[in-house]
Design brief:
- The structure is a single chain.
- This protein has 322 residues and is an alpha/beta fold.
- Helix content is 33%, strand content 15%.
- The strands form three sheets. Strands 3-2-1-9-10-11 form a six-stranded parallel beta sheet, sandwiched between helices.
- Helix 2 crosses helix 10, helix 5 runs parallel beside helix 10 and helix 8 packs parallel to helix 9.
- The protein is globular.
- Zinc ion binds next to loops.
Length: 322
C-alpha cells in the first residue's frame, strides 16, 4: 500500500486519542488522486485476505463504500465533493435549521428507501448463514444489510426509517411521517428537481424556506430521525453490542470504510490490540492502514462474493469459535 495516511487527507479528524469518545465528527474527503485503481488480477489481490481470514469467525465493519453500488453516494471516498452536514447542535439550536433538515430529508429519505442490497451485502448474509460472519457493525443508516438478510447487525449510527420525539420519546416510522409532511407541504417535490442525493438520507437543496415541519403527534415535541448526527454520540447499548461481536470474533474484516470516524476505528484497534488479524477491503486510504495485516483496494461488490466462495464454513464446535 502507498504511504497514504488518512490524516493526510482528513486533517479535521485529528490524531486518535487514547480516551477518544464516540462523538461523531465530520471529515473532509481525500482527493481523487488517493483512489487506487481496481486490480485486474482479483485472485492475486485477494489471496492474502483469504489466508488471513480463513478458519476464523469474523466481525465485519462496513461503511458507505459497501452501499455505493446500490446507488447511495459515499461522501468520504476520494474525490467526493466537500460537504458540511448539519450538526446536532445546529439542529437543536433553531427551528430554521430543523426546517432546513426536514426539507432535505423529505426528499433524501425516499432515495434510501428505494435502494436495494448489492452482491457485497448478499455475500455477508451467506457468510453469516455458514457460521463465518459473527456479526456486522455498520456505519450505514441505509438498512441494506438487514434488507439483504443479515441477522446480527449493529447500526452504529442509527437508521433512517425511524423517527423519535425528543420530548416524550414516542417512536414512529419515517414512512408515516412522510404522509404527514406530504400533507403539510403539497407540491414540495416540484421545487427540488435538482436535489443532490447525499449519503445520510439527506439532499442538498438551495431553498428550504417555506417547508412546514411536523411536530410530535403525541406531545407536540421536536422530532428527529433516529440517526447519529455529527456532534452526537453513539448510544451505549450499541457500543456494547459492537464490542461483543468484536470480542467473539477471531479476525476483523473492514469492508468499504475509510474508518475516518472513531466510532468504527476503535473496534479495529481493539482487535489489533488483542492480536487478531485485521483485513481492510476498501478503495482509497483508511485510518487503519498502519495496523491492517492485509490491505486490499478492491470494491466490496467484487471482493466479498469472491471471499464468500472461498472461505470455509464454520460451526460453533470449531476451535477458536465461541
Ligand atoms: Zn412527543
Amino acid at each position: 500500500m502507498s504511504g497514504h495516511r488518512v490524516e493526510d487527507f482528513f486533517p479535521t479528524a485529528g490524531p486518535p486519542r487514547p480516551s477518544a469518545s464516540l462523538r461523531v465528527k465530520n471529515v473532509l474527503p481525500p482527493p481523487s488522486s488517493a483512489l487506487a485503481p481496481e486490480p485486474a488480477d482479483l485472485d492475486g489481490a485477494l489471496r492474502p485476505a483469504l489466508a488471513a481470514l480463513a478458519g476464523r469467525p469474523l466481525a465485519v465493519i462496513t461503511g458507505a463504500g459497501i452501499s455505493t453500488d446500490s446507488g447511495i453516494p459515499d461522501y468520504r471516498s476520494p474525490g467526493s465533493p466537500p460537504r458540511t452536514p448539519m450538526t446536532l447542535q445546529q439542529y437543536l439550536s433553531s427551528a430554521r435549521w430543523r426546517q432546513h433538515y426536514w426539507a432535505r430529508n423529505h426528499i433524501g429519505w425516499q432515495h434510501a428507501a428505494r435502494a436495494v442490497p448489492n452482491a457485497g451485502h448478499r455475500a455477508l448474509v451467506e457468510l453469516e448463514v455458514r457460521g463465518v460472519v459473527r456479526g456486522v457493525i455498520t456505519q450505514n443508516i441505509d438498512l441494506l444489510h438487514a434488507r439483504a438478510g443479515s441477522v446480527r447487525v449493529v447500526h452504529l449510527h442509527g437508521r433512517y426509517d425511524v423517527v423519535r420525539c425528543m420530548g416524550c420519546g414516542a417512536r414512529t416510522s419515517r414512512a408515516d411521517l412522510h404522509e404527514r409532511l406530504s400533507a403539510l407541504n403539497p407540491g414540495w417535490r416540484l421545487q427540488v428537481d435538482d436535489a443532490e442525493i447525499a449519503p445520510d438520507a439527506d439532499a442538498a437543496l438551495a431553498a428550504t424556506t417555506g417547508f412546514v415541519v411536523a411536530d410530535c403527534a403525541v406531545c407536540g415535541g421536536v422530532l428527529r430521525t433516529d440517526v447519529v448526527f455529527f456532534g452526537d454520540s453513539v448510544p451505549p447499548a450499541k457500543v456494547d453490542a459492537a464490542r461483543r461481536i468484536v470480542d467473539e470474533a477471531g479476525a476483523v474484516l473492514v469492508a468499504g470504510s475509510s474508518l475516518a470516524v472513531s466510532s468504527a476505528l476503535r473496534w479495529v484497534r481493539r482487535a489489533h490490540r488483542d492480536g487478531k488479524p485485521v483485513v481492510v477491503i476498501t478503495r482509497g486510504p483508511t485510518r487503519a492502514d498502519d495496523i491492517a495485516d492485509v490491505r486490499v483496494a478492491v470494491s466490496t461488490t467484487r471482493a466479498l462474493p469472491w471471499l464468500a466462495e472461498r472461505l470455509p464454513s464454520l460451526s460453533r464446535g470449531d476451535p477458536g469459535v465461541r
